[in-house]
Design a protein that fits this description.
The complex is a heterodimer of chains A (112) and B (162). Chain A is an alpha/beta fold. Chain A has four helices and five strands, in the order E-E-H-E-H-E-H-E-H. Chain A has a single domain, classed as STAS domain (Transcription Regulator spoIIAA), CATH 3.30.750.24. Chain A is globular, with a radius of gyration of 13 Å. The N and C termini of chain B lie far apart (57 Å). The chains are: A alpha/beta (112), B alpha+beta (162). At the A-B interface, helix 2 and helix 3 of A face helix 1, helix 2 and helix 3 of B.
């Protein structure tokens, strides 16, 4: 099971994901992110601190979010990556493409 | 309690030592079960945590490719996974009976091409030491993934001095 919760804070939308993000669950994550990019939400922060596993379908979902936000010059940032999630970003060399922060506070501070 | 006499097993039923073999349907919701089995085998083999994550990811990606490509999303098709401990690591063989893979498409894409999708093969190749694809079987495909234990660090080597 996966849990995806979106909340708004200081003009940013925070998408908190809990569980494994794989071929089965990534459509739920995609739905939440696309709902925000369709509204052209200026800042989207994705909270991955409770994600214990992510495969390429999860990564693809985040790449899509990054690209969609880029089209309207929005911000798309990630925070709280654990070892397994960081591993997949490093293997796909996407750790240099995304803005990644250790926690929510650091992600917010980067907006100032 | 009825217990089956091991002597009554057919040779086809027999599983070699240190081997887990299971049949599953091509349903994405079962991927976590596959990951749990592979992760546990990696623990038994003695892989460090990061290497265990990589091996688990590679097998998960292989299963996802079977579901997406060999079975084109059908969730009721058979997949057989045989995972075993080898002398210095693990070997996982995935067998499907779906559409033959196009060997031209089974290659890692350029990572500079930032786009959603197409990362699975790259992750498999990066995470495992050996990836052998066989589409010459009469039906379906077979993928063999092998990961070896990392060599012992020289600074942890203890020399016994008489």
């Amino acid at each position: 099971m996966i849990e995806v919760i979106t909340r708004n804070q200081h003009a940013a939308a925070i998408v908190s994901i809990k569980g494994d993000v794989d071929l089965y669950s990534s459509p739920s994550v995609r739905k939440a992110i696309i709902a925000l990019t369709e509204k052209k939400t200026p800042t989207i922060l994705v909270d991955l601190q409770n994600v214990s596993y992510m495969d390429s379908s999860g990564v693809a979902t985040l790449v899509e979010g990054l690209q969609q936000t880029g089209k309207y010059k929005g911000h798309f940032k990630l925070f709280g990556l654990g070892l397994a999630v960081r591993e997949v970003f490093e293997l796909s060399r996407l750790d240099k493409v995304f803005e990644i922060y250790p926690n929510e506070e650091a992600a917010f501070n980067s907006l100032v | 309690m009825n217990s089956r006499n091991p002597n009554e097993l057919n040779s086809a039923d027999r599983v070699p030592p240190n081997t887990v073999q299971f049949h599953l349907t091509s349903d994405p919701k079962l991927l976590k079960v596959v990951r749990l089995v592979v992760a546990h085998l990696c623990d038994l083999a003695g892989f460090p945590e990061a290497q265990r994550h990589r091996a688990t990811l590679a097998v998960d990606e292989a299963c996802a490719n079977i579901i997406r490509h060999a079975y084109e999303g059908a969730t009721d098709q058979p997949v057989i996974i045989t995972a075993r401990l080898i002398d210095n690591g693990i070997e996982v063989v995935l067998r499907d009976f779906g559409k033959k893979a196009d060997m031209e498409k089974i290659k890692s894409r350029e990572l500079d091409d930032i786009r959603p999708g197409g990362l699975g093969v790259h992750l498999m190749l990066s995470a495992m030491d050996e990836v052998v694809f066989d589409n010459t079987l009469p039906e379906g495909n077979q993928l063999t993934l092998i990961k070896y234990l990392p060599p012992l660090r020289s600074d942890t080597h203890e020399e016994i001095v008489p």
